[in-house]
Amino acid sequence: MAISLDACILILKEHHILKSSAIQDALPTKMQSVSYDSRKVEVDTLFFCKGKNFRPTFLTMAKNSGAICYVAEQPYPEGKGMHALIVRNVQKAMSLLSAAFYGFPQDDLYVVAYTGTKGKTTSAYLLKGILDQQNGGTTALFSSVDRVVGPRPDQKFKSDLTTPESLDLFRDMRTAVDNGMTHLVMEVSSQAYKKSRVFGLTYDLGFFLNITPDHIGPNEHPNFEDYLHSKLQLMVNSRKCIINAETDYLADVYAAAKATTNPDSIYLFSSNDFLQPAGLPTVDVRVDNIESDMHESRFELYTATDKTKDLGIDGEYELSLIGDFNELNATAAIIAGGLAGVKHDTAASGIKDVRIPGRMQTLKTKDHGEVVVDYAHNLASMEALLSFLKREFSSPRVVVVVGSPGDKGVSRRAGFSQALTEYADVAYLTTDDPGYEDPLDIAREIDAGIDHSKVQVTIELDRAKAIKTAIENSQPGEIVVLAGKGEDMMQKVRGIDKPYASDLAIAKRVIAEL
Ligand SMILES: CC(=O)N[C@H]1[C@@H](OP(=O)(O)OP(=O)(O)OC[C@H]2O[C@@H](n3ccc(=O)[nH]c3=O)[C@H](O)[C@@H]2O)O[C@H](CO)[C@@H](O)[C@@H]1O[C@H](C)C(=O)N[C@@H](C)C(=O)N[C@H](CCC(=O)O)C(=O)O
Ligand SMILES: Nc1ncnc2c1ncn2[C@@H]1O[C@H](COP(=O)(O)OP(=O)(O)OP(=O)(O)O)[C@@H](O)[C@H]1O
């Protein structure tokens, strides 16, 4: 892979991003590598100076390691003697130039993108299950849990971000194409748009699942409007838009989709009992629960409009994941499969056994409660999870082990107080990625908002101990929910990722020792 200086200038000019350039006659004009990290620079690299922690000494390091051209929002004396491309927005420039450097790999993939406050990972995994059934396992997956860039087990690794930096995104797409992948399912976070990680990328299908207040704070979005605005960009950048009609702000989402997409290519889906939204076209696909237990659910999907009747996705499906919200996530996956040419029977067998790491994983005990390990970590997901358990299992006593992270998502704390008061009988407040905050302060903040006449609360900051006590003290017929961490194997404490056994592993150990 390579990119010429002329191509860079042309692309940046086309997008009105280039402010000025300085060309060095003595230097090569073809860049053989791209990087935004001075520690990963090779000979003839194109180097991006970006980020709030960027220091000019990183440019010196990059130059000493062989970078010949830098892209930045201002000229740096440290870059003297290098080609310089001074741009209006370095993140946008990085996205455009990385796509070009890696030869526009998106053109060789059928790309499906999911955004939403909740359900992205679940829908993405379910869709991979469906597409793999059709294409023989050549579906790449960029999720917040795993990044799959090839069909072999060793072509998969843990993700650092939900949506990677643009340069990493296009590099991994290129790897996926070179490894024979034909489809890509990706989660697109609101931060991805805010930080222009996906600038210039168009998806074959874009899904808007839902939006509730979250990710608002110093390192994320300044307010809800900014969060919504970022998420809406997915609709503007998708060739076909598929929207959960039950989402809040549906009118805004539909309007964003319509701005660049013909209504013939916009689809709505919802549960069976959801009222047709006024002023919008008929809901295209509806889902109806048939039955569910603690381990699986069965549902029916049916299409209701001309533009969906030939998709061939009507019929019954089974899911190894409980939760009515997962039936909506599954619907989002089945519609994507249908639009990509996968019919009912293939989709049904592709989706049946999909399990998502750390989402709705259930463990039985002999003489104690049943354990549910789940990733619910804000008000909306906690409410969705606990209300489902209360409703479906005839109001069992619910025990919840949960904590809230430090340094971000502060609104989650009040959300947990609210959801626990409404649905839990017993709560163990514990540690979850406290960062630079004191986990005891976070637990006390959640505790202060709980109505203690309804919920019995214990603060136990040792998460493994909290899980052990909750399971050991539970009675048959009760449900013990271990919420918010799923299969996460780290606790973020004061800038350090401390190894953690994972809620699932701890629960399995405790159950084995009962
Ligand atoms: C707010 C945000 O988007 N931050 C991301 C961003 O940071 P940044 O651009 O400010 O870069 P930085 O970390 O300040 O570092 C400055 C630059 O110096 C470079 N450097 C650094 C050291 C050195 O020796 N040499 C050098 O060149 C670094 O490579 C970097 O390019 O770029 C970094 C990678 O280049 C990311 O790791 C970082 O994500 C942070 C850690 C993060 O956690 N972000 C969260 C909020 C996020 O994006 N989350 C969403 C999910 C949210 C959801 O669930 O909806 C996500 O998509 O994951
Ligand atoms: N459609 C939904 N509506 C409400 N809650 C949901 C929905 N889907 C999943 N959840 C809940 O949210 C949790 C996280 O789900 P998932 O990982 O699929 O979402 P996500 O959008 O990828 O989340 P995040 O951005 O936080 O990683 C699940 O464990 C479940 O409790």
TrEMBL record:
Mur ligase central domain span: 115-336
Post-translational modification N6-carboxylysine, affected residues: 231
The keyword Ion transport is annotated on this UniProt entry: no
Domain Mur ligase C-terminal stretches: 358-486
Binding-site residues for UDP-N-acetyl-alpha-D-muramoyl-L-alanyl-D-glutamate, renumbered to this chain: 38, 162-163, 189, 197
SUPFAM superfamilies: MurD-like peptide ligases, catalytic domain, MurD-like peptide ligases, peptide-binding domain, MurE/MurF N-terminal domain
Gene transcribed to yield this protein: murE
Cofactor list: Mg(2+)
Lineage: Bacteria, Bacillati, Bacillota, Bacilli, Lactobacillales
Name of the protein this chain belongs to: UDP-N-acetylmuramyl-tripeptide synthetase
Pathway(s) per entry: Cell wall biogenesis; peptidoglycan biosynthesis
